[in-house]
Amino acid sequence: MMDQAESLRRLVSQGKKIKKSRVITVTGGKGGIGKTCISVNLSLSLKKLGYNVTIIDADLGFSNVEIELGVTSKYTLLDVLYNNKTITEVINEGPLGIKYISSGGDFNLIKEGVDLSLFLNNIKILDYYSDFIIVDTGAGLNEVVHNFLKAADEVLIIVTPEPTSIMDAYTLIKYSLMGENKKINVLINKAKSFEDYKKVYNRFEKVVQNYLGVFLIDLGYLEEDEKMMECIIEQNPIILKYGNSKTARRIMHIASQIANQPPPKENNGLWGIFSRLINRGGFK
What we know:
Blueprint: H1 2-13, E1 22-27, H2 35-48, E2 53-58, H3 64-69, H4 77-82, H5 87-90, E3 92-93, E4 99-102, H6 116-129, E5 132-137, H7 143-151, E6 154-159, H8 163-177, E7 183-191, H9 194-212, E8 217-223, H10 226-234, H11 238-241, H12 246-260, H13 269-279
Parallel strand pairs: 1-5, 1-6, 2-4, 2-5, 6-7, 7-8
Antiparallel strand pairs: 3-4
């Protein structure tokens, strides 16, 4: 892999055009909606479908993806930005061979003395190796989440039937995604039934279209499942432990839906996201 990385660095330095990954930023406003659990299981499902997948934990300060995967990060993106590590040095391997990277904390992309061109070249390398990059954002709509969503090309919003979750998702779209040329997927989590899911989604879609004029893509739903909590506690994702369960099969179906969708009209990969973040003054 290191020989390939060196070859890719030469291509980057020569200005050659290289493949861009499809980056899906997973969000949802409030905490406790199953966002990280879905990010992890969706990533594993895409890997089972044959894609090269990288998860980036962008929940600054809380490494929930790391906990659910049962992996530990020695180095993070902070080390690429500040401590001269290469992107290949901060990649951790999880179940099924998926790759995992921790953001490492609240860092400043425009700090004086930081070599941003070198950092972005490292990001290009990550783009090249990944078919999909799943970015798990933090809970709430703080400035970090807001800026990342503004820079994203494609978003997956997790919504539960709770009124607070629906309102938070609406607010998130209103303040971070309106007027942006991006794909917005919606997944209803913890629904009691198909009828419950349709009721929640239809109400949410109607409000978003009528008041915000934003088009949504319906990815379906996941029902409440005690096995999900069991798997979180055991740090063994449901896709692995109960692969034939109803929930696991539904997640695989959702992964297939995503894989079969055309990419966003503007698909600039992770490099494009970080370039926009830098142009907008970083995370802060």
